[in-house]
Amino acid sequence: MAKIASTVYEQIRTAILSGELSNSERLVEEDLAVSLGISRTPVREALRRLAAEGLVDVSPNRGARVAEWDDHDLREIFDLRSILESHACELATPRASTAEIEFLENICEEMEALAKTDLSSEQRLPALAAKNRIFHGKIIEMSNSSRLGLLIETLIHVPIVMQTYKVYSPEALERSLRHHREIVTAMKAGDEVWAASVMRAHVLAAREEVLGQDESE
Amino acid sequence: MAKIASTVYEQIRTAILSGELSNSERLVEEDLAVSLGISRTPVREALRRLAAEGLVDVSPNRGARVAEWDDHDLREIFDLRSILESHACELATPRASTAEIEFLENICEEMEALAKTDLSSEQRLPALAAKNRIFHGKIIEMSNSSRLGLLIETLIHVPIVMQTYKVYSPEALERSLRHHREIVTAMKAGDEVWAASVMRAHVLAAREEVLGQDESE
DNA sequence: ATTCTTCTATTTGTATACAAAGATGGCTCA
DNA sequence: TGAGCCATCTTTGTATACAAATAGAAGAAT
Question: How many residue pairs from chains A and B have C-beta atoms closer than 8 A?
Fold first, then answer.
């Protein structure tokens, strides 16, 4: 294991994303180090990296805390996601191969099948969220713009955004899956404006679902 | 001076942005440390931070190099900038105060005055570039979306992008200044679609100027 | 009792030491 | 002569030690 720093980075990151470390909890380097059985150096590196990604806030000489997000932040995030992901659709559509379209269609089917099963929410929702990430990730990859991918990545690794499906109503879930289908259909037809528009609607709908409509702004 | 790491970060950063350290030059921690009279620890931290921002590439156990950008990268960057900065215009327009509009108008005037002086290019262009950054930065600030600002910032701190005016023809420069004026006019009129459209055109025009039209893509 | 101050303990920032992984160069062997 | 291998040297990764800064608490003054 050549890079302790990377593994501890992953550990802290997943701890934050899973909510295990939420609530602006203070992250003391020494504590993390001893609990992981390593020295402060790689812990420190991991924390700075997480800070660069916006997952933790660090103040000089005052250490790191898990970052927090309010409604305004979430609104910003979904706003930008709607723009960037629809742009990804626009770029991806004229480049899409039949194999890639098929891949996306398969994800759609799998998600629809998952939605129909009578598994408990605790089992179904994480699986759906995982497939959802694959779907969106594939389109971003198809856009062939590495920077676009990076920008979106820095936006979405925020706990609530990653767990979007947890707050979905059955109707919202169904709409979401229909959006996925429509996006693929539009891409198949080579209509990038259509595809981008549906993606935009898709993300904005998710925003309202997560934030609720009771926003005064 | 409590934070050596931050100052060395700034030093390396400006060295890269000014082109002083360009060309995928290797950045050896020890060398930088001794040349700055400090230890490797803050140098290392600065390098990791620069890596997170995309200004240097680091490979495990192989150190850091100054990042390089090809035409494809630049195309991506201007593409995304055109989308994000026009969005900033859209958000900023309904929020713009008369004082802010005035501020932007003053920048326009100062830039026009600068363009008319018969100073040498070496003196005029950096001054113009600085004002240009202030103009764009102000609009981003007016958009009141901190994340949007961060995303744009990670895109533009690439040498060639920052020195855009260096490659401008006189005609391109004049067009650029007219764009600025038109953006302010549109914002003054409260027409965010107009403002966003001009901004989009403004950045895409810059892209063609920087890349040249001899692209196959 | 409240506020201000000072002292101490905790925590971060930097330096140094050591271990491990890569790169380099010369050597052997064909 | 050229390819492959071994030794060494450089450079990065991690641990530890020390210095500086902040936070928290106890105590003094009003």
Answer: 61
Query: Which pLDDT tens digit goes with each residue over B58-67?
Result: 999 999 999 9
CA–C1' gap, A60 and C3, in angstroms: 28
Residue B3 neighbours by CB under 8 Å, 6+ apart: A60
Give the angle B65-B71-B77 at the CA atoms, nearest 5°.
Answer: 85
- Chain A residues whose CB is inside 8 A of the B45 CB are 44-45, 48
Q: How many Å from the CA of B56 to C1' of D3?
A: 36
Counting Cα atoms < 13 Å in the Cβ hemisphere of A177 gives 21
Count of CB atoms within 10 A of residue A108's CB?
Answer: 20
Nearest Cα neighbor of A78 from A188, A182, A167, A147 is A167
B61 has a chain A CB within 8 A of its CB: yes
- What is the enclosing helix (H) or strand (E) of A124? helix A121-142
The pLDDT value recorded for residue A213 is 57
DSSP assigned state of B215 = -
pLDDT in tens, B149-178: 989 988 887 766 666 677 788 899 999 999
Computed over its alpha carbons, how large is the radius of gyration of chain A?
19
Nearest partner of A67 among A47, A45, A41, judged by Cα? A47
Q: Do B147 and A76 touch (CB under 8 A)?
A: yes
**Cβ <8 Å between A79 and B145:** yes
Q: How far is the CA of A205 from the C1' of D27 (A)?
A: 59
Inter-chain contact A60–B2, Cβ cutoff 8 Å? yes
Residue A192 and residue A90 in contact, taking contact as beta carbons nearer than 8 Å = yes
Q: How far apart are CA B163 and CA B173, in angstroms?
A: 13
CA gap A146, B73 in Å, rounded: 9
